[in-house]
Design brief:
Blueprint: E1 5-15, E2 20-31, E3 36-40, H1 47-54, E4 63-72, E5 75-76, H2 82-86, E6 93-96, H3 100-103, H4 110-121, H5 126-139, H6 145-148, H7 158-170, E7 176-180, H8 188-205, E8 208-213, H9 216-222, E9 225-230, E10 233-239, H10 240-245, H11 250-257, H12 299-303, E11 309-312, E12 315-317
Parallel strand pairs: 3-8, 3-9, 6-7, 7-8
Antiparallel strand pairs: 1-2, 1-4, 4-5, 9-10, 10-12, 11-12
Helix pairs in contact: 4-5, 5-7, 7-8
Length: about 325
């Protein structure tokens, strides 16, 4: 199936007073309609920067797209003009921000914030927009949507605010949906409710979805495919089922190995951990960025950067010495 959104060789550079370095490097992936692709990795791996680049919301000139294409419906978003982008952002591509309290205007009631998107992109009048917002609030399971329409963000719980942000992103039935850590800072029960709501609504609009998270449990429940990021690059990509069954990159293998499992009564087992820390993006080693932490690293890893290549059909990894597939 042809991807609805296709990222080709995307590189994002950050500039400080004394240096310029790559925050995202040579990213290539695609996502099709009705598909959920999870971008996974530790903090600082470039996941949110990728989302900001797709939406062209980078804080320029500090951060800018240095090379690559972001193809959506025949339009290269990386080079599109602001007029074109205004018709796409919030309309054909929706974004669920990581922190609802900073993505909602605290001085404006939540209902009118969502209604503004409908009036701008769909041309609805005030009454029609309000009616549609109340429908959306009901769909995202906000109780008493007519009354909640006039609430300010501070009058809602974190879970309710996150539901408003989901309604805002889905208001125009987008073709592409980007969800950046949609359950961050929520308790476990609320997380489960938000994820269930998110999955139901995403499926109903049939959007091509990019889910950004560091929570592998969320990935297992939600995603069709997974792209694992490390130090601004994709190091492994395959289906969710295959990734959990047979991870081939040592970094992915380490991430999955560090997940706690229910042990037999009385058994105590120390969880394995990935030694070391993620290197600074402005001081990456010349070869594989993961090599200083990798138990499988050889001399080649220190000097040559491995390309992201097929190691079997439908499974890509950037590693000179991948973990052996289970027999």
């Amino acid at each position: 199936m042809k991807p609805l959104l296709s990222i080709e060789g995307l590189t994002v550079e950050l500039s400080t007073r004394d240096r310029t370095f790559e925050a995202v490097s040579d990213l290539t992936f695609g996502v099709s309609r009705n598909e959920v692709l999870a971008l996974v990795g530790e903090s600082g791996s470039g996941k949110s920067m990728t989302a900001m680049a797709i939406m062209r919301l980078l804080p320029e000139p500090v951060a800018e797209i240095a090379s690559g294409r972001i193809m959506f419906d025949g339009i290269d978003l990386a080079s599109a003009g602001e007029a074109s982008l205004r018709g796409i952002r919030g309309n054909r591509i929706g974004l669920i921000f990581q922190e609802p309290m900073t993505s909602l205007n605290p001085s404006i009631r939540v209902g009118p914030q969502v209604a503004e998107v409908l009036r701008l992109h769909k041309g609805l009048d005030a009454d029609a927009a309000r009616h549609r917002v109340e429908e959306l609030f009901e769909q995202v399971r906000i109780p008493d949507p007519r009354r909640r329409y006039d609430d300010y963000p501070h009058q809602m719980s974190g879970g309710m605010r996150q539901r408003v942000v989901i309604a805002l992103a889905l208001a125009c039935d987008p073709d592409v949906l980007i969800a950046d850590e949609p359950t961050t800072a929520l308790d476990v029960t609320t997380q489960a409710q938000i994820l269930e709501t998110f999955r139901d609504l995403q499926a109903s609009v049939g959007a091509a979805t990019i889910l950004i998270t560091h929570d592998l449990a969320v990935v297992a429940e939600t995603a069709d495919r997974v792209a694992v990021m490390y130090a601004g690059r994709i190091v492994e990509e395959t289906t969710t089922e295959r990734l959990f069954a047979a991870p081939r990159h040592p970094y992915t293998h380490g991430l999955l190995g560090s997940i706690p499992h229910v042990a037999e009564a009385g058994a105590r087992e120390r969880l394995p951990e990935i030694e070391g820390t993620v290197p600074a993006l402005w001081a990456l080693p010349p070869g594989c960025a993961f090599a200083p932490r990798c138990p499988r690293a050889g001399e080649r890893c220190a000097t040559e950067r491995p390309p992201l290549a097929d190691i079997e059909p439908g499974h890509r990894a950037a590693c000179w010495y991948p973990v052996e597939a289970a027999a």
